[in-house]
Write a structure and sequence with these properties.
Elements lengths: L5 H4 L4 H5 L20 E3 L16 E3 L12 H20 L4 E6 L8 H11 L4 E3 H4 L6 H10 L1 E8 L1 H10 L3 H8 L4 E5 L4 H7 L1 H4 L4 E2 L5 H11 L3
Parallel strand pairs: 3-4, 3-5, 5-6, 6-7
Antiparallel strand pairs: 1-2
Helix pairs in contact: 4-11
C-alpha cells in the first residue's frame, strides 16, 4: 500500500506533494510547513473516539510537522475553539498561566497530581486548585476564578467529581456562561462522557479528552501543544 511521504519529506512545496503517491498535490502549503484550515487527515481507519469521530489520525494547525502527538478529527474540532481563545488571551494578557486544573478534592493526591506533574514536565504553567483554591469553595466559583487567571481550563472528570457535581446542584445558566467562553476542556478519567451527561448535560456536551483513548502522558502532551503560543 502506498504511504504518504510527508512525515519524511515534509511536503513544504506543491512539487513535493505532487511527487507523493498518496497526496498528489491537493493540500495547502506555506514556505515553512503545511497546515490545513482546521485539521489534516494523516491516515484512514475505522472506530470511534470519545467525541464521536473517527479514530483516524489528524494534525491540527497548532501542532508542528515534527510532532509525534496524534489527534482524532473529533478532538481537533473540540479543541480548535479553545486554541483560538488561548491565542486571544495570550495576546491580551501575557502574564496568565497556561491552564487551570480543576479537580475533585478526593483526586488531589492521585489523578489530579499525576496530570499536574505531567503538565509541568511539559513546561505548562498550571493554576492548580489543590494549591490555589480554598478548600470547600463551590466548584463554579473555583472554575470562574481559575479561568480568570489562565488561558484555558481543564476539568478532570472522575467518579469523585461526578459526585461533587450532583451534590452541588450546579445551575445550567451559570455553567452555560462558563462554557460560552470556549476555555474549558473536560478530561474524563475512570468514567465516561455518558456518565457525565447524566449528571451535567451541559458539561457533557463539551467534547474533550479521555484516558480511555490516551494515556495521561499523551493527554498532557496534547494540552502542552494546545497552549504553546
Amino acid at each position: 500500500m502506498s504511504r504518504c511521504t510527508a512525515p519524511v519529506r515534509g511536503h513544504r512545496t506543491a512539487s513535493g506533494a505532487a511527487a507523493c503517491p498518496v497526496c498528489g498535490g491537493y493540500r495547502r502549503y506555506s514556505s515553512r510547513s503545511y497546515y490545513p484550515s482546521a485539521y489534516e487527515p494523516r491516515s484512514g481507519g475505522g472506530g470511534t473516539s470519545s467525541g464521536g469521530g473517527s479514530s483516524r489520525s489528524s494534525r491540527p494547525s497548532w501542532s508542528s510537522s515534527s510532532s509525534t502527538v496524534t489527534y482524532t478529527p473529533a478532538e481537533v474540532r473540540s479543541l480548535t475553539p479553545v486554541r483560538r481563545t488561548v491565542e486571544e488571551r495570550a495576546r491580551a494578557y501575557p502574564d496568565l498561566r497556561d491552564v487551570f486544573l480543576c479537580h475533585a478534592w478526593d483526586d488531589r493526591r492521585g489523578a489530579a497530581k499525576e496530570l499536574h506533574d505531567l503538565l509541568e514536565s511539559n513546561d505548562v504553567s498550571v493554576w492548580f486548585s489543590e494549591k490555589d483554591v480554598m478548600l470547600g469553595a463551590p466548584l463554579l466559583r473555583a472554575i470562574d476564578k481559575g479561568l480568570a487567571k489562565s488561558r484555558a481550563g481543564i476539568v478532570l472528570v472522575t467518579p469523585a467529581l461526578l459526585t461533587r457535581l450532583e451534590s452541588e446542584g450546579i445551575a445550567d445558566k451559570e455553567l452555560s456562561e462558563l462554557l460560552a467562553r470556549d476555555q474549558l476542556i473536560p478530561v474524563v478519567h475512570e468514567t465516561t462522557y455518558e456518565a457525565l451527561r447524566e449528571v451535567s448535560p451541559l458539561l457533557g456536551s463539551r467534547s474533550g479528552l479521555s484516558t480511555a483513548e490516551d494515556s495521561m502522558a499523551d493527554i498532557a502532551a496534547k494540552i502542552a501543544e494546545l497552549t504553546d503560543v
